[in-house]
Amino acid sequence: MQNTALIDAAREYILAKYRDNPQPALVYHNLTHTQGVVDAAAQIAAHYRLQDDELTAVYIAAWFHDEGYLEGDGSSHEEAGAEEAVQFLREHNASEQLQQMVSGCILATKMPQSPNTLIEQIVCDADLFHLGSKEYAERSKLLRHEVEMVHHKEVDKIEWLKSNIRFLTQHQYWTDYARTLQKQQKDENIKQMQKKLDKKLAEEGPAVNNSTPLPDGTTTHFFVEEKEKHKDKDHKHKEKEEKAKKPDRGVETMFRITSTNHIRLSSMADSKAHIMISVNSIILSIMLTLLIRRLEDYPNFIIPSLLFVITSVTTVIFAVLATRPNVTSGTFTRDDISRKDANLLFFGNFHKMTLEEYEWGMKQMMNDADFLYGSMTKDVYHLGVVLGHKYRLLRISYNVFMFGLILSVLAFLVAAIFFPVKA
C-alpha cells in the first residue's frame, strides 16, 4: 500500500509539473511521451514480475526520466531528472536504497544507454519502446520538429533520415522481452526509413553535405557523394535480396489468435469432461448405495441396473482419458537446436532442463527468425493434435452416455411392464 501511494504521488507530481510549466517547443519530450514510457515500463515489469521496491523504482523513474526538460535546455536532463526524483523521494521519506535505484534507472537512459541492473534495463527499453512500434514514424516527425524549434534551425530531411536509420540500426534493446516483442517492427521501421531515404536521394541528386542532430541530441556529420550513394544503395539492395523475408505483423496476430482459440477450446473440452465425470459419479453413487441393495426384492431390474452401471463407468473412463495429461521427455540437446527440431515453447520439451540450458536454447531461437516462427507453427500444430484427441475421446464419452442412458431407461421400462415382480 505504501509503495502504491508513492507511485500515485509521483504521478500527480509530474502531471502538476507539466501543467504548471508548459513548454510549447517540447512536442516530443512531453507528457504524452512520459505516459507512454510509464505504460511500456509497466508492461515489461509485469513480464518479469517485479515486486515491492523494484517495481516502485521502475514506475517512479519512468515518471521522472524526462522531467529535466522542464528545468533547462535538455542537454543534461537525466541528471536534473534524477536529482528531482531523489528530492521528491526524500520528501516522502523513501529509503536510501529506493532513492539510489530510481536515480540509477534515470541516469542509465543517458545516451549511450548504460544499464547495469534489470530495472535499469527495463527503464531504458521503455524509454525507446517506440522504436519498435508502428508509431515510430510519427514520433520521429515530432522529434525533428522539436529539434528545429529548440535550435531555431531547419533540419535537412535527408540527414534526418540517415541519422534515424543509423540510430535504429545501432540500437539494441536490453531485455529479452523487448527484443522479442519489438524486433520485427523495428526492422520494418528501418526498411520504411530506408525507402524514404532512397526516394529522397533520387529526388535531390548529386551530393549532400550537412550537419544534423541525431535523435539522442548529439550531432554527426555526413558527407555523401554520388558514387558512394549508388554503392550504398547497391549494397542495401543485395542485403535485401539475401535476407530471408520475414512475416509481417499479421502473421504474429494469426499465431496469437490461433493459439488462444486452441487453448480456449481445450479448456471447454476439459469442462465438458468434468461434467461427464461429475454426473456419472453421482449416478454410480446412487446406484451402488440404493438400488443394488434392493435388487433382491426386484430381480427384474438386475439387467437394466447392470446396463446403467456399465454405461456410467464407460462414460467416466473416456472422460478421464480426454483430460489425462501426457508429458513428454522434457529434455532437448544442442543438436536438436542446431537441427531446429526442439519446440521450446512447449513445457513438455524442457521441464527437466536447467535454467541456463533453457536460456541458451531460447536465445538461439530468438536470434533465428525461421527457428522462432517454425517453433510457433509446431506449437500450434501440436495444440491442434492434442485438441483433436481430446474431442474424439469426449465424443465417445458423450455418445456412450447418451445411447447407454436411452437403453438403460428402455430396459427399466421393459422390466417394469413385461416382467413385473410377483407379490
Automatic annotation (TrEMBL):
Transmembrane stretches, start-end: 273-295, 301-322, 400-421
CDD domains reported for this sequence: HDc (cd00077)
GO BP annotation list: defense response to virus
Pfam families: HD (PF01966), PycTM (PF18967)
GO cellular component terms, semicolon-separated: plasma membrane
Residue ranges of domain HD/PDEase in the record: 26-141
GO molecular function: hydrolase activity; nucleotide binding
Localization annotation: Cell membrane
Main localisation: membrane
Biased composition (Polar residues): 208-221
InterPro entries linked: HD/PDEase_dom, HD_domain, HD_phosphohydro, PycTM_dom
Keywords: Antiviral defense, Cell membrane, Hydrolase, Membrane, Nucleotide-binding, Transmembrane, Transmembrane helix
Protein name: Predicted metal-dependent phosphohydrolase, HD superfamily
Species per Swiss-Prot/TrEMBL record: Chitinophaga jiangningensis
